[in-house]
Amino acid sequence: xxxxxxxxxxxxxxxxxxxxxxxxxxxxxxxxxxxxxxxxxxxxxxxxxxxxxxxxxxxxxxxxxxxxxxxxxxxxxxxxxxxxxxxxxxxxxxxxxxxxxxxxxxxxxxxxxxxxxxxxxxxxxxxxxxxxxxxxxxxxxxxxxxxxxxxxxxxxxxxxxxxxxxxxxxxxxxxxxxxxxxxxxxxxxxxxxxxxxxxxxxxxxxxxxxxxxxxxxxxxxxxxxxxxxxxxxxxxxxxxxxxxxxxxxxxxxxxxxxxxxxxxxxxxxxxxxxxxxxxxxxxxxxxxxxxxxxxxxxxxxxxxxxxxxxxxxxxxxxxxxxxxxxxxxxxxxxxxxxxxxxxxxxxxxxxxxxxxxxxxxxxxxxxxxxxxxxxxxxxxxxxxxxxxxxxxxxxxxxxxxxxxxxxxxxxxxxxxxxxxxxxxxxxxxxxxxxxxxxxxxxxxxxxxxxxxxxxxxxxxxxxxxxxxxxxxx
Length: 473
Known about the structure:
This protein has helices spanning 33-44, 71-90, 105-118, 145-166, 176-188, 197-202, 206-212, 268-283, 328-338, 355-361, 374-387, 420-429, 463-472; strands at residues 5-6, 16-19, 49-53, 58-62, 95-100, 135-139, 191-195, 220-226, 237-241, 243-247, 289-298, 310-312, 318-320, 346-351, 366-370, 391-393, 411-412, 436-440, 446-447, 457-458. It is α/β, with parallel strands linked by helices. It folds into two domains: 5-143, 3-Layer(aba) Sandwich (Leucine Aminopeptidase, subunit E, domain 1); 162-472, Aminopeptidase, CATH 3.40.630. Strand 15 (366-370), helix 11 (374-387) and strand 16 (391-393) form a beta-alpha-beta unit. Helix 5 runs parallel beside helix 8 (268-283) and helix 7 runs antiparallel to helix 9.
């Protein structure tokens, strides 16, 4: 783990970036006349990142754009840091000290967050595996150490989640994902119990077993728990992550370009839950949290489940499978049903669930729905804005239930062509009887282009949102 550190003195001969405001007197920097002139001219031109090469170090001045307000200013800072990161890597700068000259530690934290998240790289399988990450230190008289510790925990959680999403199926199947959880549990301190295929059969989790029928690797069901002695909640918050480690679509097979070729990322919901647990435990949040991670691939062979099959779920509802590529909701449904045993305060499931979500929202946000109060949804919205992992709430009207009626079973696993994201959520609702939120992160969980500090590939979207939401609710 590489954490952002606090320093108590401003180093003389090390690279620094000064987070300033319009009132800051740059004369205090002891600049040469030509340097001060250059700086003033750059400010007059409204340059927000100004770099001065002092030969023994780089002195960089960053001026926040105060026309942005609230959470938009924090996001501006993160993106400014990402822009600077490219310059730092290009110039082989390995260490940077961030100076709070604006007496605004929140802007420094946001800038540091953007820089730290930009540090992520995935080159595990490259022969030339160069580490271009930058060590970050902060000088600020007003910085809250608790907030910095939480930020470090979040960054480490996001990095772990991104790496799990980026790993190919050949290196992360339903057994390997358990190994990853075990490794993280030893580092951060949450507990882990794993149900194997025999346990899953005994608990009659028909959705997980059906999806796994075509696989050469048995399914797993991981139960993570963080229960500190000072937990503030009587009943746990339960997080459920979709762990489809690879999705061919089953016999409803997917096309390859821009679909099956990136289906190693179909376990991004599981990665977010695992990474969130790592962050929550590292930060020692005083909250009782349980995590459920059902994991399997959705493969094709002569034993695979087929369209037209009827399966019986953990809660004894029967489901007619009309599309084997609507498999994520089947394993989530069993996990949602299993979550009842914890008498949860609230359950949140997170999944790359529907292509329809990408059509509706693209990669710019998270589609959510559920049965919690408007007050809870408002808190989720606030957390989404603070982390810039924004949500859009979709209706879950009873009118949509008619699309899931089956002639031969209690439910069918797909609705009609319209409102595919909502009918997927409506399907899941049948397996809940507690306060529940469903989060669809399809499209945003894995990108084929560099998305600022979120990078390229696995983004870890949803983790920072969930951490903030749990911390504040």
